[in-house]
Design brief:
The protein is an alpha+beta fold. The protein has three domains: 35-189 and 407-481, Periplasmic binding protein-like II (D-Maltodextrin-Binding Protein, domain 2), CATH 3.40.190; 197-263 and 335-406 and 569-582, no CATH class; 266-322 and 489-552, no CATH class. Helices cover 39% and strands 11% of the residues. The chain is built from 22 helices and 13 strands. The chain has helices at residues 34-47, 56-69, 86-103, 114-127, 142-145, 154-159, 204-207, 210-220, 230-243, 266-273, 276-280, 319-335, 345-348, 420-433, 436-446, 452-455, 458-463, 470-474, 492-508, 513-534, 548-552, 574-582; strands at residues 77-83, 106-112, 134-138, 191-203, 226-227, 249-250, 253-254, 299-301, 304-307, 359-364, 387-390, 407-413, 571-572. The strands form four sheets. Strands 1, 2, 3, 4, 10, 11 and 12 form a seven-stranded mixed β-sheet that branches. The longest helix is centred in the last third of the chain and has 22 residues, at 513-534.
Length: 585
């Protein structure tokens, strides 16, 4: 995921070096034989790495390259780290073991909380000692990484120092998120390892029930379906919470038309920085992020951030952003279970699987595997889901071409202060766990796709009904409107921690939505100002403050307040939408 713990003080802050760091050491003698590696490769390909988009011979040829390339590093133990999600659990449990048996390089793949990953990364950078030999951290940090000198751009590494340990079958064009890990200088800084989006989730069985559909049309005058906009989402939330069957119940059980979370916690920041403002209509059109104003509301000119506040041309505290926060708080209080306001991301994630939630506007597809387990109230007896996923509805300020949602991309990152031999061995492991030999099986285990060839594989074509529209979404052009945080954010850890603290006061009622966003905008500009004084390529250079009306009169973001922030509700028939996706529309 995206944000960091509140203790994170930014990659540019002074951090005290933690104890227990490791440096490159003499390699122990290794009794590994290439014949053992080939035997292991045959066993793993036959027993575990199937299905694959490669033939068995192609898989073994790819493994042969790893066996040969690993020769100088046999006997080493390499330490890598990632956050704890299903995909990385599979890597740590299965792929690390396979890599060791096939190459003779021992791997210790640690799983820790996401905030801890970033703290370790910061500590290694500032302490200039090697803690981990490679990190899987979010591509959300691309604006931070590309402005520093502590990360080795992979474009440079693969062409230079790492040329001999870069797989000829890596096939970067097959990675669907490679643009997310590319800096303003057009260099690739990270290699995607797992990706998931936040989409709209709903109970397909309820939405297609003839009696429920009739009740909705009688109440609202249009068809129940996938909401295109927030006006329709709000009506559907009201219907299921208060009106379905006259009392907000289905089969005698109280149901709710909305689910979310609101506890004062770093994950509350993710809820907003993960493109909630762009879904409302904040910022400008542009791919993968709005230009010149992105989904965080930061204006950039010639790669330099120039302001967050409306008075500097930003949109953090503009009408679209205030509207986004207002709707979030209103829906949480009116339409979600009462306990949702006291939950964080992890606690709220499993709730829809309990069977009493009708829809969720902001649902991470990383929960897909846990929502398809046999016996759940949201799974049919044949194993197919009772739910579906669809594009997120957009707010009243949204324009065609705006970003519509967020896509997380955890990606391999190499640091300059890692010893060269350890960096090379870690790079081999990073390529192994993303290789075509293993990526389809890893995609089945975690449903966090990184390769287009896996999405379009025969396996997912034959089993797409098991995943509630996830395969169709990733196979459609629609996925291009779901992107991570972009290069406009110059210090992700430091800026991200401001969000949850300001959103939380709006949830509790300590501040209005406008006051919360005004405070956030000012605090972000204060940090941008400090970064400006440090200088550097693409460093911030704040615009002078001007009257807000000057910026409202300019084209694009920030947009002035709409007279009608509701608009006309609109819905789509889900099955027609899927047909459009399958047709490539």
């Amino acid at each position: 995921m995206r944000a960091t713990r509140s203790a994170a003080a930014g990659l540019t802050a002074v951090v005290v070096m933690a104890a227990g760091c490791t440096q490159s050491a003499e390699r122990p003698a290794s009794d590994f034989r290439e014949a053992d590696g080939r035997a292991a490769a045959q066993r793993w390909v036959s027993e575990e790495f199937t299905p694959s988009t490669l033939s068995r011979d192609q898989q073994l040829a790819e493994m042969e390259w790893f066996i040969k390339a690993a020769a100088p590093y046999r006997g080493m133990q390499i330490n890598v780290v990632s956050e704890t999600i299903t995909t990385h659990e599979y890597e740590s449990r299965q792929l690390a073991k396979a890599f060791t048996e096939i190459t003779g390089i021992r791997i210790k793949h640690d799983l820790i909380q996401e905030g801890d990953v970033v703290e370790k990364l910061q500590t290694q950078i500032q302490g200039d000692q090697n803690i981990y030999d490679a990190y899987v951290n979010d591509s959300d940090l691309i604006g931070t990484h590309s402005r520093g000198d502590y990360v080795i751009p992979l474009s440079d590494y693969m062409a230079g120092e790492g040329k001999n340990v870069t797989s000829p079958t890596l096939d970067l064009d097959d990675f669907i998120g490679i643009s997310f890990t590319t800096g303003p200088d057009k260099k690739i800084y990270q290699l995607p390892d797992q990706q998931f989006a936040n989409l709209y989730w709903f109970r397909y069985d309820w939405f297609t029930d003839p009696e429920i559909k009739k009740q909705f049309r009688d109440a609202y005058g249009y068809d129940l379906g996938v909401p295109v906009n927030w006006a329709a989402y709000e009506d559907i939330a009201d219907f299921f919470t208060n009106k379905v069957n006259g009392n907000g119940t289905i089969d005698g059980t109280k149901v709710y038309g909305h689910m979310d979370y609101g506890r004062k916690d770093p994950s509350l920041g993710w809820r907003f920085t993960d493109a909630w403002l762009s879904m409302a209509g904040n910022g400008d059109a542009g791919s993968p992020n709005g230009l010149p104003v992105d989904e965080w509301g930061i204006r950039v000119e010639n790669c330099r951030p120039v302001g967050s506040s409306v008075t500097r041309g930003g949109d953090v505290n503009g009408p679209a952003s205030v509207y986004a926060l207002t709707k979030y708080v209103d829906w949480l209080k009116k339409y979600a279970p009462k306990e949702a306001a006291g939950m964080n991301f992890s606690e709220s994630g499993p709730v829809p699987a309990q069977g009493h939630i009708a829809q969720q506007v902001f649902w991470y597809t990383s929960f897909t595997a846990d929502m398809t387990k046999p016996g759940l109230p949201v799974v049919n007896s044949d194993g197919t889901p009772k739910w579906r996923i669809a594009p997120s509805p957009h707010g009243a300020y949204w324009k065609e071409g705006n970003k519509l949602g967020y896509q997380d991309a955890g990606a391999w990152t190499l640091l300059r202060n890692t010893p060269q031999d350890r960096r090379a061995a870690a790079w081999l492991y990073a390529q192994f766990v993303t290789s075509k030999t293993v990526s389809l099986k890893k995609s089945i285990a975690g449903l966090t796709f990184i390769r287009d060839s896996d999405i379009r594989s025969d396996y997912f074509a034959e089993n797409s009904a098991d995943y509630g529209g996830l395969i169709e979404f990733y196979g459609s052009p629609a996925r291009e409107q779901w992107t991570p945080t972009g290069t406009n954010v110059p210090d992700y850890p430091r800026l991200a921690q401001l969000w949850w603290q300001n959103v939380a006061t709006a949830v509790t009622g300590e501040t209005t939505a406008q006051q919360s966003m005004d405070n956030l905008a000012k605090q972000q500009d204060d940090i941008l100002s400090r970064l400006e004084r440090r200088g550097g390529d693409c460093a911030p250079k704040l615009n002078p403050e001007r009257d807000a009306q000057f910026w409202y009169d300019q084209p694009g973001a920030p947009a002035p307040k709409l007279a009608d922030e509701r608009g006309k509700p609109a819905t789509l028939d889900y099955d027609e939408l899927i047909a459009q996706w399958k047709a490539g529309n």
